[in-house]
Predict the 3D structure of the following.
Amino acid sequence: MHVGIIGGGMMGLATAFYLNQKGINVTILEKEREIGGLSRSQEIMPGLYWDRFYHVILSTDQELLNFIDEIGLAQDVRFTE
């Protein structure tokens, strides 16, 4: 089986991740030059990148934190006041 996913935003990437874990071949079709959708960053000064839309992950966002852990990025999450 081979699945095509339209859109390389957070939902498309997560869907591709889980399908791939089940052994399903996936192709992501994205119209932009970069993947990430609304969770992409943009260069606001030479060499300085900032979130385009999402600026916070709360410590109560357990489903998102679980997903971040599954994809091996939990060590990069820091919470500060």
Notes: Helices lie at 10-21, 62-70. The chain has two helices and four strands. Residues 5 and 45 are 33 Å apart (CA to CA).
